[in-house]
Each structure stands twice: as structure tokens, then as C-alpha cells.
Amino acid sequence: MSRNEIRIAGTGGQGVVTAGRILAEAAILSGGEATHSQVYGPQSRGGASRSDVVIATEPIGFPLADNIDLLIILSAAAYAKYVPDFDPDGQLIIDSRCAPESMNGDAARFAVVDTARAISGGHLVTGVVALGVLQAHTGVVDADVLERAVAARVPTQHRKMNLDALCAGMQLAGG
Amino acid sequence: MSDVQLIQGNEACVRGALAVGCRFYAGYPITPSSEIAEQMVRLLPGIGGVFIQMEDEIASLASIIGASIAGTKAMTATSGPGFSLMQEHIGFATMAEVPCVIVNVMRGGPSTGLPTSPSQGDVMQARWGTHGDHPAIVLAPSSVGEVFDATVRAFNLSERFRTPVIVLYDEIVGHTRESVALPDSVEIVDRIQPNSDGSEFWPKRAAADGVPPMSAFGDGHRFHITGLTHGERGFPTNDPQVAEALITRLHRKVEAHAEEIIEVEVFMMDDAETAIFAYGIVGRSAREAVLRARADGVKVGLIRPLTLWPFPYAQVAEAAKQVDTLVVAEMNLGQLIGEVERAAVGQAEIVGYLRVDGEPITPTALLNVVASVSGGQA
Amino acid sequence: MTDINTYLREWTMPHVLCPGCAHGIVLRSFLEAVDQLQLDPDKLAMVAGIGCSSRLIGHVDFCTLHGTHGRAPAFATGLKLARPELNVVVLTGDGDALAIGGNHMIHAARRNIDITVLMLSNAIYGMTGGQSAPTTPEGAVASTTPAGNTEPMFDSCKLLIGAGASFVARVFAANPLEMTKVMADGITHPGFSFIEVISDCPEYFGRYNNIGGGANMLSWMTVQDEGVAGPLSAKRFVNHVPITVLSPALATGVLEREVRPVFSGIREG
């Protein structure tokens, strides 16, 4: 039985929660089991935001993240909050603006935020760019399934922008 | 079964309610239950149902009691502060014997507390929150799928016993999305109607099982409903014998059917030397901890009640006879642990693992507790 | 015309009211309105809260729901939305409707749900032993205002008009024919109807304020001008009562009548 715990951490407004839902839905489309949890707070925009996804091949016992395997950091605040305690054996993906210069280790750095800004003019598709990076970098879900999950979840009028964002993310990670 | 979907516990609650025939929802916004109202308002009108956002939780429960008296299956949902306001009408519905379902998605308390964090702090309030001696039926699902089942069951038990039923789960179960395939149809129980033989309807004359048949306003029986102590005809009285008969019947109709109401998951208990007693989201952690401990050869099992009230005294007593230690894990400062002690009557050592910081009890934490009480083998 | 007694559950008699209490006159006027309108008793639901007036519903042979203190409009809302063919009448008192139940009352009015509220106002809490109410005039003595009430009173009709009730009226228990007419009017009005009935409480209000018995208390109600009542003040109750603070004059008759959309919940169609 395999269990994969993925945390996407950033700022409200980056689409972190939606990205987590899409990832979990892609896992289900692939025939697996998934859970998705998020942090609820009074702020819809601007506060810390976090999305945890558990993907497994069999029914999931404990539905929350208990030991993160893969951490995606999309804000400096998220870096400060989650990276210091992160399991050294885990996989780390960091937006290149968020990692301090002094940082050691073998974290994968990608220009997620800048790419999202280039596509949307803002932060809205940051989470989806991160999903593209995640896919190409780890192969945790197949690219075509992830694309279907994105198309099914986002509003019709934003579908093209989100698919562009996903594609750009994959390209960032060499996909 | 429907296709596998990724949905929240609160959404599964709505699906269960609609599947079992709920056609009236009244509520007041409160985190972390508001998704239930937001789903209800989208789905109810299309299937002949009615939705209303009331001025507060007192009115919400009053209005679903009114709808139920009109013959419609009805529910409301809330969280701790609203649940406190609902106690008045939980008592009324119990006394007047009006079927209805109340969902409490627990958050940290007391008072406004931790609005977005999980808790199991309302377990005793769900049992004893309203004044006076009264029975209670409280169900505690631990997953999205179980929320669906518990909501269906809550309506069925409510109709079966003419009493309010509470579905109690925490913020994590309410908000976490899980992959689940929901059934297309469910068992539906409806309240027993009185004979239409022309005789006068006495709304509180019970059948042998203690449950009186129930007519609806508008169906041709003109009768009286009151929260005052009353006789079989439904009218107020101070007669001591009538008062005692009513209160004991209200209890008996639930307690005498405890076996029908109580559901407990007993997991890996056959050779267990240690047992974890946990419910709701903590039950999920405990099950995971049991599996991990077993992988290390530790003989530990799980007692997970899906019904909190009536409390499963017999099942806990049986487990207590078998094991050396019963670990009770709750997200409160010790509420059901007292009932476990009453059931165990000294036959096992009872160890509490209690947490009130708004964070969940994790499998790893319980694994450590099991290791320490079972001599460090894990 | 039906024998009015056929609307009663005669076996529940004797009733709970004190000698001299005018609530019985009010009930009679209501039953006359029911009879005039030929309402189907099987489809007539009466919802009450807690208090002397609320207890009256036990005596009438309709579908009767005796709920909790102040919450009758909320019970009635669920009943009406779930079963729109029912005629729903709330019977309440001034403390029930305006103090503990004030919030429910104004929101039911705001929604314009199609129910009728009869508020029997006797300016005191009778059932609990004569405590002051939101309708107790300034200066009046109650068991919790032994030196005279120092709080201003509600003008319930102004409150309900402000809240959006589409039919608002005030009548006097001393005027039974007028009561029946206005009640029939309120019941047939589509939307939320609020009728304040000025009744009396000789046992507490009358006794505490040296006004005398029921007959004396009713006599002041007859002192009224066209359309505008004599002020609900101690001086108009009877002569020479020891209350000096006047309360504002209260208008009588139908004070608001407006046809606007009736609320039926969020439902299809």
C-alpha cells in the first residue's frame, strides 16, 4: 500500500486550495483514493493558506497529513513556517523567490510565482503552475489526467488561462 | 453506487439528508457548518423542498419542529455557540416527541472559542445540554462516507422513536474532502401514522414499544402539542403519576432499544491486551495507530463507538474485562472517559490521552501512547 | 351561524383565566371571526408561546401548538412553509411577543410570511406573578417595579410597522364586535398580520395599581376618540389612580395595510 502526503503552502489568493482539490481529483480520476484538507481562517485573501493532499492506492485511514512526503512552498511566510521542521528525507519544491540565498540542501527551485504573474497578471494561477511543476518533477499523477482535472474544476471562462498555467509549470520543470 | 467523488463531510451530510427524504432546512450561518446550508439551498428547491435562513439558532430549531409537525422531514445544522442556543428546543422536541435532526459540527469552545479548529468538546452537552431528565440519541461519524450514513440513520431513528437525533462530528470530518462513492438509494423509515378509524386521536398514547403514532397538522386530526408535562391526550397536567409515566416512557422508548441504536466498530480486539477507545476523527487516528502497532507485534485493538448516546456500556465493559489498559483518546479534557470508567468498573486501567489545543490527535501520537502503556514494544 | 361552543374543547374547562380577565372576550371574538370566515378547523393551526394568553389555545378545537416562550413566530414559520394550505394564527402575549420573542416577531414581519399574530397585551406578566413587561406604562407598579416603572414602553404597532408587517391593527377587548371585524380582516390579509389587542389583568396590574377589577379596567377602554384611543395611561384607566406619569397615546384601528409579496421560503417556482 502506498501513501503519499503532499502539502502546498502559500498565500490566500494564489489558488492553493483549488490546486489541492485538483490534485486530489486527478488522483481519483487515476483510480486512486484521495483526501484534501485546508486551513480555514477568517481571511479569504492575503493570509497564510495551505492545502494538504493524501493520495493512496487503498482506502485512507487517517485523512490528514501526518508525515509530509512532498512540500511545495509558494510564499516566504510558508517557508518560515513549514521548512524548518520538514522531514529531511522529504521532497521540497520552492518558488525561487521564496528560498533564502543562504539555503542549503537540494530543494528544487522554480519560478512559479513569476510564471503565474506572466500568465494571469497576478497570483490567481500560482497554484496551478505549481501543479504543473509537481507533475513534471515527480510524476505523482499523469499529465493528461491532471489536465482533465484542471479543466473540470476551474470556471469555463478561466479554463484556457489555467491550462496555459499548467503547461507552463510543466515546462518549468522540464516536462 | 454513484461515481467516486471528492466531497466534504458537510456535503455528504446534505446528500444523506436528501436521500432519506429531508425536505425542509432552516439554519443560521456558523463556521464550520455553513457549507451544509449553502448546499441545501442549492439542492432543496429542485426536489420540492424548502430552505430558510432564520434569525438565529433558536428560531432555526423551532422552525424545523414546526415543519416536522406539518409532516415534513426537517433538519438544521450548527456548531457549538449555536448548539448552545438550540438546547431549549432540543428539550421541546424531546418532550413533545417531534422527530428532527440536528447536526453539530464541533469547534473549539467554550463560547466563540476556536471557530475553525476541531474539538470534541460538545459530547456531554449533546447528552445533557437541555434541562430536565431526558433521553438522547447522538451519532458520531468519523469520515465523509460515515457522515452520509449517520445522517440517513439519524432521520430514520428520529422517525422511528419520535425524538430529536443529533449528528455530532468535528471540524475535520466536516471540512476534509475524501474520495467516496455514495449509494443511490437508502433505507427510509417513516413515523407511524395513527389508525384512521374515526376514533379520537390521542397524540401521546404509545404503542407497546413506547412510541406513539404521529399525525401531522392538516391531516384531519385536531390535537394539542405542548412542552408542558402532559397526559396521553396531549394536554397539560400536574398529576404526579402522569408526570412520572411520561418521563419514564420517554427514556424507556430509547433505552429499551439501545441495542437497535448502538453501533460500535470493534477492530483487532480478539487477542488485544491494550485497547484504544476513540470516536469521530480520533477514531481514524486510533485505527491507523492500531495497524502500525500491530505491524510491530503489539497486541492492541480499537473500540470505536459510532453511537455516543445511548453509551455502549456493554461493549466497553466486555473490552475492559479482556484488556489490561484502555486508552481513551478525546479532543476534550475528558468527557466520555468518565463513561468508560463507569462501564469498566475497575476491570482495566484507564488512561486518557486528551487534547484541547485545536489540533488533531495524530496516529503517531497515539502510537507513542500505546507504546508507553504496553511496555515500550512499539 | 355556528354555536361558538362547538369550536371549544369543552372537556378542558374550566379555563385557566382569573375572574375579570378579558382574554376570554378576546377568544370569543376570535372564534366569531373564524365562524364568519368559515375556516376549516382541520386546517386552522394555532401556535402559542408561554403566558396566560398563550394557554388559551388549549381550549380551542383546532390544531394547536403550545411552544416555548417567545418563539411562536418561529414555530409558525416552519409550519406555514412546510404546509402552506394551513391557516396559521399565533396567539401571544406582550411579554412573549415583545421581550423574549421580539427578535422572532420582527423577522417574521420583515419576511411578510402569511400568518396572523394576535398579541394580547395586558401590560404585565400575569402567569409568573405580575412582573413588569415591555408594555408596562412608565410609573406603573409591578412586582419588579415596586416604586413604579422607570422604563419607556414599546408602541408595538409602530415597532411592527417599522419591521415591515403588511397589516397592523390595534383593538380593545372592550370592543368585541370591532375585534371580530379586525381579526377577520387580518386573517384574510395576504401576508403578515399583527393585531395588538389591549386586554387587562385585574389580578396583578389592577390590584398593584389600585385600579379595581375587570369591569373598571375595561371601562377606560371605552373612552376613545374616533380612530385614536384614549392614551394608555394610568389616568385614563380610572379616576384618581396613583400613577402620574403618562404614557403616549396609542392609535387604534387598522394602522397599516399594504399588499406586497408574501414570503414562502426558498422553494421552486
Q: Level of helix content of chain C?
A: 25-40%
Distance between the termini of chain B: 39 Å
CATH topology of the largest domain in chain B: Rossmann fold
Summarize the largest interface: chains and residue counts: B-C, 47 and 38 residues
From N to C, what is the helix and strand string of chain C? HEHEHEHHEHEHEHHHE
Strand residues, percent of chain C: 5-15%
What would a concise description of this structure say?
Chain B is an alpha/beta fold and 378 residues long. Chain B contains 13 helices and 16 strands.
Give an account of the 3D structure.
The complex is a heterotrimer of chains A (175), B (378) and C (269). Chain A has helices at residues 16-29, 76-82, 112-120, 126-138, 143-153, 159-172; strands at 3-11, 33-38, 48-56, 70-73, 91-95, 108-110. Chain A has 175 residues and is an alpha/beta fold. Chain A has one domain: Pyruvate-ferredoxin Oxidoreductase, domain 3 (3-Layer(aba) Sandwich). In chain A, helix 1 packs across helix 4 (126-138). The two termini of chain A are 28 Å apart. Chain B is globular, with a radius of gyration of 21 Å. Chain C is an alpha/beta fold and 269 residues long. Chain C has one domain (15-257): Thiamin diphosphate (ThDP)-binding fold, Pyr/PP domains (Rossmann fold, 3-Layer(aba) Sandwich), CATH 3.40.50. Helices cover 32% and strands 14% of the residues of chain C. Mean pLDDT of chain C is 88; it is low at 224-247.
